[in-house]
Design goal:
The structure holds 2 protein chains of 2 kinds. Chain A has helices at about 60-70, 170-185, 235-250, 300-310, 310-320, 325-335, 335-345, 355-370, 370-375, 380-390, 395-410, 410-420, 425-435, 445-460, and strands at about 5-15, 75, 80, 80-85, 95-100, 105-110, 120-130, 135-140, 145-150, 155-165, 200-210, 225-230, 260-265, 270-275, 285, 295. Chain A is α+β, with helices and mostly antiparallel strands. Chain A folds into 3 domains: about 5-295, no CATH class; about 310-390, no CATH class; about 395-460, Arc Repressor Mutant, subunit A (Orthogonal Bundle), CATH 1.10.10.410. Chain A is globular. In chain B, strand 9 (about 300-305), helix 8 (about 315-330) and strand 10 form a beta-alpha-beta unit. By secondary structure, chain B is an alpha/beta fold. The chains are: A alpha+beta, B alpha/beta. Strand 9 of chain A pairs antiparallel with strand 2 (about 80) of chain B, so a sheet runs across the interface.
């Protein structure tokens, strides 16, 4: 019993306030953070006055679709808004206009890895559009505790990203949250400023007993504990670790974990049980009768896809920065179809993303010689083709290392040139290795090996370091 | 359920409501017999309209002063509520209720006098900027709106002056005008009788000659029923033809604003002024198709008489009066044929699930923080509907009630589509009585909500299908009370209804007689 392991099952909900000029369902200014006074950006609609009706903001829908595409989601051609009911003084209508059965985007995935561990895939369940609530201020007035409400934020467009519970550790949760943050920023759909609250994190956590927990075909634990109001990646990790510890203790004591909601208390750095009112209620969702359904045209989605791509010059520079050869970068950035394909494959994230340069470099250079396939084949098939061809490469470390040390030993002049700062010497050395390998050596590994060997040669010429 | 609906209800109230809600749920059980396999639910009637949105442009906001002007308490431009940490329920600041003196006349039609020179009265559901708008409820009894409804603005722009705000059933919940928190409206034809509801003040004020026209809203018959009880003309517009912006919402997918007046021609004039696409109402449409068949195809009009509208449950006097109108039309070259609307009998059951679900949602905003009084000020009928709607849409019951109702709603719509289908030799207009009975006495049905609800059995199918309908006077009962009929058209068929209605009013002068009788009655009552 003591040795049996509990595996955390974690899902994230990320809210981002969309960067539009006006609010989601009315023309009030969307800039609550810089408002000079409370309740100056309000109108009948966002104050929930009698008789007021919502009219959706097209730009907010566009940004949500963009976000969905950036997170690798399918865009649902048919969507609609629904009413989500609960009572709280910062929610003026007694319901929030949100999306329930038909969100704008669903079924995406995020690929990431922590340092050198294996790549992991976290599925994105949905991206939907809703409206933000007003904001509270707590004061004591004449000895009486009151809640003050400012509705400047009420009705600000809010996109909610929900992941599947595929996350297995607090560290992974942090990485995924960062990844989402990076994508949101790169797409320019939101400031995603955690301090200002324009990006907010929630996690739900439960524990599964067993060694290998695969999400397919296995039932999830029948409870979940939610943690709300997290405003930094570090706190997210901390809060989840505390919760994992708490649940593990309960489970090891043979007890059941209660379904519950906590808030994260930033000051005390601890989990704080939420007020009962905020716990899961019956939201009585039903289709919003005040707004006709939304049907997105294929053309519009293509246009948004095109927006994700930047100017050709920018793309070219980013590709070069990521290690793609200048020739390849120019060819790709000059061709809309190739750009869209590269974006589809790399999901709109910044090309300079830390764990990406090597892959983009390989892929980009490869695309140069496979333009027809790259344009015609669907993304998945293309990746398969690329990987198959890559398999023909010699990337066995021991084999490569032998060639590298031979080349270094036999080309001392080039080594001396390299050390004195002559860059072309590196190219010469790579060429020598490729000659030995019949042009099939994995160029990235060769570069790594050459670099490490040349470095060690400077201090300890005789010692061979093992790469990887 | 009361908790979920954010209502605090006493044990005594609970006992009463539980029994009444059980009666209603017992009645809606009849939907169990309807096979809805493969039938899509209907949540909106918009002719397939999609993608109504606005560009991302900053418009005008209220000033901070205006925003907080209606709050019970505000500090430094913030709204104030009781601490959310202290209690779960009592967020609004509870203040003692001040006695409210409603400004009302002998018929209980006038709430607020606005402008002596004008001629339009507004059902008190229509917001009028700067002028008290109560929805007939204590919750809003001191509410002075920060903006006006689109319909009011359009009429004022066309030169009409607003004269009165008119009493109505609170939140438009009612078929008799008795549900107003400011007292029951009386029927000018006989003040012991109800004027019909919920646009009770509108119909009574037009009948008594206090105003030339009045606005009203019709969610399940609320214009047509009082029009027929008071011998005036009432138009329930196609859903989407008139903007709902600035009108206190009852049930959003059913609410249709409209007008009451003495003649069809007058009502047509108002409709032409106010029927415009409103950018503030995403469900309002331009209505490109506006058939007007009498003028373009004289003599070719075909009217359908649904056999269900003349069944055993309909008062014989009503049946006889309406059939006389039918024979007048027939004699004058209009073809009459019997049709069937087999699913219309489920109308009330569907309506009391869809409508209450939307009502419970729409009344959620009245928390007493930003304006108005808190939720304890809701009257019995509003509480009953909020609880029923909350139940019908709650997690475990939504599929059985709300969704099922939405599917049967589709069948009701299909009945009408089939009846009007030109390719299937359909009719141009459907004609039937408005109410199954002549006007009933004040207090007669107040203790039996279900019986009250059944007054709308002939009117609700029209709302469920989003169709236009015109109620017009067609005679009197033996006891001297008005009987009305309704013409129902296909969506956007208002002109067709006006054409047939005008033709009828050329032939029969019930509406003219009304003016004379109503005025003498007013005099008679005054001298008492």
């Amino acid at each position: 019993m003591k040795n049996s392991k509990y595996m955390p099952v974690i899902g994230l909900e990320v809210h981002v306030e969309l960067k539009t000029k006006s609010k989601m369902f009315c023309g009030c200014r969307n800039d609550p953070f810089h408002a000079s006074k409370p309740n100056i950006y309000t109108c009948p609609v966002c104050l929930g006055l009698p008789g007021a009706l919502p009219v959706p903001n097209k730009k907010a829908i566009e940004l949500t679709v963009k976000l969905g595409l950036g997170l690798g989601c399918e865009i649902n051609r048919e969507s609609r808004f629904d009413r989500k009911h609960y009572f709280y003084p910062d929610l003026p209508k007694g319901y929030q206009i949100s999306q329930y059965e038909k969100p704008f985007a669903s079924d995406g995935e995020l690929k990431f890895r922590i340092q050198n561990s294996e790549f992991r895939i976290i599925r994105v369940r949905r991206v939907h559009l809703e409206e933000d609530t007003g904001k509270f201020l707590y004061r004591k007035i004449d000895g009486e505790e009151v809640s003050l409400i400012d509705f400047n934020r009420s009705g600000v467009p809010l996109a909610e990203i929900v992941t599947e519970p595929d996350i297995r550790s607090a560290e992974e949760a942090k990485e995924i949250a960062k990844k989402i943050h990076q994508i949101v920023r790169a797409l320019e759909v939101s400031d995603a400023d955690m301090e200002k609250g324009s990006m907010r994190l929630e996690a739900n956590i439960s524990m599964f007993k067993g060694l290998a927990f695969g999400y397919k075909g296995q039932a999830l634990p029948n409870y979940k504990v939610e943690i709300k109001n997290i405003n930094s990646f570090r706190f997210l990790e901390k809060a989840i670790n505390k919760e994992i510890e708490r649940q593990e203790k309960i489970l090891r004591g043979g007890k059941k974990v209660k379904q519950q909601t906590f808030g994260w208390d930033t000051e005390k750095q601890e989990l704080k049980p939420q007020r009962v009112k905020e716990e899961a209620a019956d939201y009585r969702y039903f289709p919003e009768p005040d707004i006709p359904p939304i049907i997105l045209s294929a053309d519009w989605i293509t246009d948004i896809k095109a927006q994700i791509s930047k100017l050709p010059e920018e793309i070219c520079q980013e590709l070069i920065k990521a290690g793609v050869s200048e020739t390849a970068a120019k060819v790709i950035s000059g061709d809309k179809q190739l750009v869209l394909k590269i974006i589809e494959i790399f999901r709109g994230r910044s090309f300079a993303a830390k764990d990406r340069p090597l892959q983009i470099r390989n892929f980009g250079n490869w695309v140069l010689h496979h333009q027809t396939e790259a344009k015609e084949k669907p993304a998945e098939e293309l990746i398969l083709l690329f990987n198959q061809q890559k398999e023909g490469m010699i990337s066995d470390s021991n084999q490569l290392e032998d060639w590298v040390s031979d080349v270094i030993k036999n080309n001392q002049q080039a080594v001396i040139d390299f050390k004195s700062g002559k860059q072309p010497a590196m190219g010469f050395l790579i060429g020598q290795v490729q000659r030995l390998a019949g042009g099939k050596a994995d160029i990235n590994k060769v570069v790594t090996l050459l670099n490490s060997n040349l470095k060690t040669q400077i201090s300890k010429p005789s010692v061979k370091l093992k790469a990887d | 359920m009361a908790g979920l609906a954010n209502l605090q209800i006493s044990d005594k109230e609970l006992e009463l409501y539980t029994k009444q809600i059980q009666d209603i749920l017992g009645y809606v059980e009849q939907l169990d017999e309807v096979n809805v396999e493969g039938v899509e639910p209907t949540y909106q009637t918009l002719d397939g309209t999609t993608n109504v949105w606005r560009e991302d442009e900053v418009g005008e906001s209220l000033s901070q002063e205006e925003a907080v002007s209606q709050a019970k308490r505000s500090i430094d431009g913030y709204f104030v509520a009781n601490s959310v940490f202290k209690s779960n329920k009592a967020w609004p600041l509870t203040t003692k209720a001040r006695p409210f003196m409603a400004e009302i006349d002998k018929y209980n039609v006038v709430l607020t006098e606005v402008d002596e020179n004008g001629t339009v009265g507004h059902k008190d559901l229509f917001l009028t900027k700067g002028v008290k708008s109560t929805a007939g409820s204590n919750v809003l009894r001191e509410y002075i709106p920060q903006y006006s409804s689109t319909v009011v603005e359009l009429l004022e722009k066309a030169g009409f002056k607003t004269k009165y705000k008119l009493n109505c059933d609170a939140w438009a919940h009612g078929s008799s005008g008795e549900n107003s928190d400011f007292g029951a409206t009386k029927n000018p034809w006989n003040i012991e009788y109800t004027p019909g509801g919920s646009s009770s003040g509108s119909a009574a004020a037009v009948a008594a000659g206090l105003v030339d026209f009045a606005t009203g809203t019709d969610t399940g018959g609320s214009i047509r029923l009082p029009a027929s009880f008071c011998n005036v003309v009432g138009l329930k517009s196609t859903y989407g033809a008139l903007s709902r912006y600035g009108i206190v919402a009852m049930a959003s997918s059913l609410d249709s604003p409209g007008f009451l007046g003495r003649t069809v021609g007058e009502v047509r004039k108002l409709f032409e002024i106010a029927s415009k696409k409103d950018l503030n109402d995403a469900t309002s449409e331009s209505g490109v198709k506006r058939p007007g068949l009498v003028s373009t195809r004289p003599g070719l009009i075909r009217i359908g008489i649904p056999k269900e509208y003349f069944s055993d449950g309909i008062d014989p006097e009503v049946k006889k009066t309406v059939m006389e109108a039918v024979s007048v039309l027939k004699k004058n070259g209009i073809e009459i044929r019997e049709i069937t609307l087999p699913n219309s009998k489920y109308g009330i059951a569907v309506y009391y699930l869809v409508q209450t679900t939307e009502v419970a949602s729409n009344l959620g905003r009245y928390d007493g923080i930003r304006y108005g009084q808190d939720r304890s000020f809701f009257g019995a009928e509003a509480k009953r509907r909020i609880m029923l709607g909350t139940f019908a849409s709650s997690a475990g019951y939504s599929a059985k009630f709300f969704e099922k109702a939405a599917r049967v709603r589709t069948l009701i719509i299909q009945d009408f589509e089939k009846a009007f289908d030109p390719s299937a030799d359909g009719v141009d207009v459907i004609l039937g009585p408005v109410s199954p009975t002549p006007p009933f006495k004040l207090g007669e049905k107040t203790n039996d909500p279900l019986q009250m609800y059944l007054s709308d059995i002939l009117t609700v199918p029209v709302n469920l299908a989003g169709l236009p309908a015109l109620a017009l006077p067609c005679g009197f009962s033996k006891s001297g009370l008005p009987v009305g009929m309704q013409l129902i058209g296909p969506r956007w068929g208002e002109n067709l209804l006006f054409d047939v209605g005008e033709k009828y009013q050329e032939l029969m002068k019930w509406h003219k007689m009304q003016l004379h009788v109503a005025r003498s009655k007013v005099k008679g009552q005054r001298s008492k």
